[in-house]
Design a protein that fits this description.
By secondary structure, the chain is mostly beta strands. It is 0% helix and 48% strand. The strands form 2 sheets. Strands 1, 2, 7, 8, 9 and 10 form a 6-stranded antiparallel beta sheet that branches. Strand 3 and strand 4 form a beta hairpin. The termini are far apart. The model has no long low-confidence stretch (mean pLDDT 94).
Length: 147
């Protein structure tokens, strides 16, 4: 005898979107805004955190490694060694987070979500110690630890 039906859903993995500008150049000690997008089929609220890494490789040391935790609405930056997070401030707050290679101006950094997409606009200033050609990398992880 059938009494009804019940659907057990599954969580879908999030994905990285776009970065603007995707290429170009900047002068040391001059702010640049990078707009990044990340999406999750289960809604942007299912995104736990995202990264923007700017370096010559995927190593976390001696670079700009920005981290935004969507669940607690806080921004962080890896220290010079790439072993600890600095900061923990809300986008739009009057804080600056910096290491020897870059700084993140929280007052000019925003995070917003709509539907399945989370958009973070990172306001970054590279320091003299970080000159040269770099690559950009995006990463996203959801609340179920899918990435």
């Amino acid at each position: 005898m059938k009494k009804g039906t019940y659907l057990v859903g599954t969580n879908s993995a999030p994905s990285v979107g776009t970065i603007t500008p995707a290429s170009g150049s900047a002068q040391a000690n001059t702010p640049v805004t990078f707009t990044t997008t990340y999406s999750d089929p289960n809604g942007y609220q299912d995104i736990q955190y995202v990264f923007l890494l700017i370096n010559t490789s995927t190593a976390y040391a001696n670079c700009f490694f920005g981290y935004y935790n969507q669940n607690n609405n806080k921004l962080y930056l890896k220290d010079d060694a790439g072993t600890a997070y600095l900061g923990g401030f809300a986008p739009g707050s009057s804080n600056t987070i910096e290491n020897s290679y870059a700084k993140l101006d929280c007052s000019k950094t925003t995070a917003s979500g709509s539907g399945n997409t989370l958009t973070v606009k990172w306001n970054v200033t590279f320091k003299d110690a970080f000159v040269g050609i770099k690559n950009t990398y995006l990463y996203v992880r959801d609340d179920s630890n899918l990435y």
